[in-house]
Write a structure and sequence with these properties.
The structure is a single chain. This protein is an alpha/beta fold. It has one domain. Helices cover 27% and strands 35% of the residues. The protein is built from 12 helices and 26 strands. It has helices at 3-18, 35-44, 49-64, 107-116, 118-125, 144-148, 156-162, 164-170, 182-190, 423-430, 436-452, 457-472; strands at residues 25-28, 89-91, 128-133, 136-142, 152-155, 194-199, 209-214, 221-222, 225-230, 235-243, 251-253, 256-261, 266-274, 279-282, 284-289, 294-301, 306-309, 312-315, 321-330, 335-338, 341-344, 350-359, 364-373, 380-390, 396-405, 410-420. Strands 5, 6, 8, 9, 11, 12, 14, 15, 17, 18, 20, 21, 23 and 25 form a 14-stranded mixed beta sheet that branches. A 10-stranded mixed beta sheet has the order 4-3-7-10-13-16-19-22-24-26. Strands 1-2 form a two-stranded antiparallel ribbon. Strand 3 (128-133) and strand 4 (136-142) form a beta hairpin. Helix 2 runs antiparallel to helix 3. The two termini are 25 Å apart. The relative contact order is 0.10.
């Protein structure tokens, strides 16, 4: 490919993420977090009284809890001031809950998702798509054949109304309670939008469903909630994509994810995040896995000024299993603190964690993880592998694995490597006709292959291209 073609491809990919739209909101809350704000949001959504009560309890939790500051090497959160955040912006879309035809969206919103390539991906690789713009889902569609089998894929605000019993049972009660951490409490108070996925017993959804979350406005917060319930013997793959343009003021993303994996069920949750470098990404994600169930977390964190993200699985039933594959990329001014947590609470449970991180131009990456094996969880096994690749002496990469083993009849393995790209590797590839940049890109592509091979081809290509752009300093 010629250099001109390379430049055009780079420019097109940049344009997909860096464009901005003038805000056109039907309703926007005032800055800050107060009881009055929460009541206004709940009223605007016409929520049942029990949801408003949960929001207000979460607010009280948030107000009592301190900001996390005492973890070694954690990102600096001193700039995060919720009083300066606009917590809720309802876009100007005629149909509340989202339309099911892209042509029915306002031109400015439709143009946003066209540029991001979401409608094209839906046609080629997905069984259903939800698209959130600011604080609410504006598009939602599921292929009819899955609806006929009882599969539900809709936005969370709609699910509160139409599947109230299920949401009331699962929403922030068993998996991620507001008391878990300060940002979970913030999320519980101010959540808006997100996805609800319900897969009936013995149903396999053989094409992924995807939700895409776009923050367009400066100085806003996005707090979508994802709730997935996979009944006994079912299977589903959920893909989450995220992006925001760069502004001078900081944005805050504090989503919540709760996954319930039934007996013999299988859920894969894949994330490709490309937040702009003025965004603080502070999520809480957790799954509860029943007997012989299988949970997989596939995560790619490319953007944000700071990320603190540690997807967790509670292996509740005998024979439950969990697999984490994560990649983090930190460039100048970025601190990407990611990892995984696994709780082995039953016998014969199994977990694997594979973490890949890349840092350049003074960026910082960190793997922070926890594996807990409870007393009585006999014949359980875990394997943790952390690999870090640095481009220069100014960059930093650490691994902080923590293991609590309270049972003797278990198999535990851990391996960690940290290193720079070797001159001899680059020299070898240059001797085969590659220039310096192409040689480094080939090394990195091989380094991140474990995650890209787990994604549908469209998303694997996108992830590789995002990494290329980060290496070139072309985004943000």
């Amino acid at each position: 490919m010629s250099s001109d073609q390379d430049h055009l491809k780079e420019t097109d990919t940049e344009a997909r993420f860096e464009f901005k739209k003038e805000q056109k909101a039907a309703f926007a809350a005032e800055k800050g977090l107060t009881e009055e704000t929460i009541r206004v949001i709940s009223e605007d959504k016409d929520e049942p009284e029990w949801m408003l009560e949960r929001r207000l309890r979460a607010l009280k939790q948030y107000q009592k809890m301190p900001m996390p500051t005492d973890w070694p090497g954690q990102p600096d959160l001193s700039e995060v001031d919720v009083d300066e955040i606009v917590p809720y912006i309802r876009p100007d879309v005629e149909v509340r809950g989202g339309v099911d035809d892209w042509r029915d969206l306002p031109d400015d919103i439709k143009d946003t998702f066209d540029k991001l390539g979401i409608p094209e991906a839906e046609k080629n690789a997905l069984s259903g798509v939800g698209a959130q713009y600011e604080s609410e889902v504006v598009y939602q569609n599921m292929q009819e054949r899955w609806e006929e089998k009882g599969v539900v894929f809709m936005n969370m605000d709609q699910a509160v109304q139409e599947h109230e019993d299920i949401v009331k049972e699962y929403f922030m009660t068993k998996c991620v309670p507001p008391s878990d951490n300060k940002f979970a409490a913030l999320h519980g108070a101010i959540w808006s939008g997100g996805s609800f996925v319900y897969v009936p017993e013995d149903t396999t959804v053989d094409m992924p469903v995807q939700a895409y979350f776009r923050m367009n406005s400066e100085g806003m917060g996005q707090f979508e909630h994802t709730l997935i319930v996979a009944e006994k013997g079912s299977e589903v793959h959920y893909i989450e994509g995220c992006s925001a343009p760069k502004y001078s003021a900081f944005n805050l993303h504090s989503g919540g994810v709760e996954v319930f994996v039934g007996e013999d069920a299988h859920v894969q949750y894949s994330t490709v995040q490309n937040w702009s470098k003025n965004t603080y990404n502070l999520n809480t994600k957790r799954a509860i896995v029943e007997k012989n169930g299988r949970m997989e977390w596939i995560s790619g964190s490319m953007g944000s000024k700071a990320t603190m993200l540690y997807p967790a699985s509670i292996l509740k039933g005998r024979g439950a299993s969990d697999n984490h594959i994560t990649i983090a990329f930190a460039g100048e001014g970025q601190n990407i603190d990611t990892g995984a947590k696994v709780y082995h609470n039953a016998p014969e449970t199994k977990s694997t964690i594979e973490s890949k991180s890349i840092s350049k131009d003074g960026g910082r990456t960190n793997y922070r993880g926890l594996v807990h094996i409870a007393n009585g969880a006999k014949n359980s096994s875990t394997a943790v592998e952390c690999d870090a690749l640095m481009f220069d002496n100014e960059s930093t990469s650490d691994t902080m694995p923590y293991m609590e083993i309270n049972e003797s009849q278990v198999d535990v393995a851990h391996e960690a490597t940290v290193g720079k790209i070797g001159d001899e590797d680059i020299f070898y590839l240059q001797s085969r006709g590659l220039d310096d940049d192409d040689a480094k890109q080939m090394i990195v592509s091989g380094f991140i292959e474990p995650i890209t091979e787990e994604l549908p081809i469209e998303y694997a290509v996108e992830l590789n291209r995002l990494v290329e752009l980060e290496m070139e300093g072309s985004l943000g």
